[in-house]
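Subject: Predicted fold for Exported protein, 334 residues

User T.R. writes:
Posting the sequence so we have a shared reference for the thread.
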Amino acid sequence: MIQRRQLLAAGACVLGAPALVRAQGYKGEYRLSLVVGPGTTWYTAAENFAQLVRERTAGRINMRLYPAASLVQGAQDRELAAMRQGTIDVLVGTTVNWAGTVKDFTTFLLPYLMPDTKAVDAVLASDALNKDFYDIIRRAGAEPLASGEYGNIQLLNAKRRIAKPADVAGLKIRTVATPLQQDVMNALKANPTTMSWADAQAALASGAVDGLTLTLEQALAYKVATLGQKQVTRWNVFNELIHFLVAGPVFKTWTPEDQQLVRAAAKDAAVELTRQVRKPVDDTLKQQGFEVYSPSAEEIAQWKAAVHPVYDKWKASLNTGLIGKIEQAVAQAK
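User M.O. replies:
I've generated the structure tokens; pasting them so everyone works from the same file.
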């Protein structure tokens, strides 16, 4: 009799676990939105994060990936608003995509803010990011878990080798939906064009658009050389961060223990993301037919001078205290 009671009690514990999770307010599935699709390090990082969370919480927290911003019909600038409305539970992405909702999210797109990996590492370890910027994210309704490097966003085109700012003049360049990046293109006398990635592929293939900005690993993953975009310029104007966020109300439904497990999983995924982003890709670029040009120090100085007015304009309109702290962290890294 005692043995039978013990077996029944054990079975009740197992069967009762899902009910206990539901009673705590846990969902059966958490919707994770990201802009990119499979094949990119960004997607792999989100996938790795979701897997680590599932394993470390023993299945209590299951995240399902929704790539290509599919939860907002591809409108990546609407992700944060959708999170606030409860449509999205988790975000893995760059804050510039949500800058239309929170202007200060434009900060990390400032041209030449983080010119090299030392600068990125300094920012990732700084209070400017982990305290000041994360507080901005929390006020926007999300809980920041971790951040990793996105990688330099380079300039690609189908027309000609671009070495200096004057070479961009007149080219129609697809950009993300942010006024700052459009201001950069206008400063270079290019023609910035905003469109979804699906529309961009057709426009690039037909020649209706001359070029675009992408990280090199994304250029490889999307095989944009097949769209004629074979000329690559390592201008290193932009280098963003990818952030792992959970909707504030959702995060609060988890136990403190699970909150810690999820945060640790995000940090591990962010570290691996940064490591993957920094892997050399030159050989693969050549194999896919890309022609890569690295501007000289003199030419980089020209690029910096050309976009500096944009930097000054946007710094004045954003959180100058935060940007000053980021600049200080970068300067100390040098």
